Amino acid sequence: MTNNIANNKNNEKIALVLGATGGIGGEVACLLVKRGWTVRALNRDAAKAAGSQPELNWLQGDAMNASDVLNAAKDATLIVHAVNPAGYRNWGTLVLPMLDNTITAAKSVGATVILPGTIYNFGPDAFPVLHEDAAQNPVTVKGSIRVEMERRLKLASESGVRVIIVRAGDFFGPKAGNNWFSQGMITPGIQVDSVTYPGKRGIGHQWAYLPDTAETMMRLVEKGDTLPVFAAYHMEGFWDHDGTQLTAAIRRVVDKPDLKIKSFPWWILPFLAPFNTFMKEAGEMKYLWKKPLRMPNTRLVEAIGPEPRTPIDEAMKATLTGLGCLPDDFKFDRDEH
């Protein structure tokens, strides 16, 4: 089985992206196209998806269907596994079968698998400084599933499938979907008049700007066979050392120095959980906000050099613009702040 992620037998770079309509999947797909890859994207409504991202080769299919994934992966040298159940629903029954289909296809065609990882597979015992090889003792069901995902990918790597995992902090970005920033801190489509912050002043938190995460993944892909067969990396991202730096960036971007920062009402989650899947998940992840959490990127820097970093105010402006939280005629000159 060949495993050269740069070229297939026709010297064409082909990638299959699962989850291309999502935040990280969409960002990686766009970068692949810009770098000359032919990008296939599998979707249950390919015609609809093609309307918003016509630069991708959309294929009708379902990541839960092994034959659909295998057919879409033909001649591919890279599979981006960024697919997740919509709105956090049905994780227990969907996530692992979808990953198994990706692994089976990767083994068949000789493709590398790259996975945007999370920190959910680590428990508080691994904090406050989280290294790639820390013990994985999850405290939630979702975390246990993440542990099992990585275990299956590790087993696949022992059979010759090259695997890259990039773990990062909480996402924010112009195309961010199910995450704390867009579902817990601000309201998409509405100009920012307040921010609800889940943590407490003095407790550091790790954030990751989606376009920077996608660029990091691409640079690792381009390292090809120089990486270990199973390679896991942590991004440092944006380290909010005292829990006030991200909200300060929002204040600067919207030009409201006195923008109200409200505490997240954790007490209400048990009442909302039965009706809102995100709120149920949020309650389980409360532990991530109770202690400082920082992810050193030493291993990543050794692999690709300096980590991609968009200046925080520029990243925040792009995020709020993409989420429809700034007026159409809004102008922000970063040099003035």
Structure description:
This protein has 337 residues and is an alpha/beta fold. It folds into two domains: 14-171 and 207-238, NAD(P)-binding Rossmann-like Domain (Rossmann fold, 3-Layer(aba) Sandwich), CATH 3.40.50; 177-206 and 242-291 and 311-326, no CATH class. Helix content is 36%, strand content 16%. The protein contains twelve helices and twelve strands. The protein has helices spanning 23-34, 46-52, 66-72, 91-109, 141-157, 180-185, 210-221, 245-254, 269-272, 277-284, 298-304, 312-322, and strands at 14-18, 38-43, 57-60, 78-81, 112-117, 163-167, 170-172, 194-197, 205-209, 230-234, 238-240, 260-263. The strands form three sheets. It has a seven-stranded parallel beta sheet with strand order 3-2-1-4-5-6-10, with helices on both faces. Strands 7-9-11 form a three-stranded mixed beta sheet. It has a two-stranded parallel sheet with strand order 8-12. Strand 1 (14-18), helix 1 (23-34) and strand 2 form a beta-alpha-beta unit. Helix 4 packs parallel to helix 5 (141-157) and helix 8 packs across helix 12. The radius of gyration is 20 Å and the shape is globular. The termini are far apart. 39% of the residues are buried.
Key terms:
337 residues; alpha/beta; Rossmann fold; 2 domains; 3-stranded mixed beta sheet; globular; NAD(P)-dependent_oxidoreduct; aldehyde dehydrogenase (NAD+) activity; NAD(P)-binding domain-containing protein; NAD(P)-bd_dom_sf; NAD(P)-bd_dom
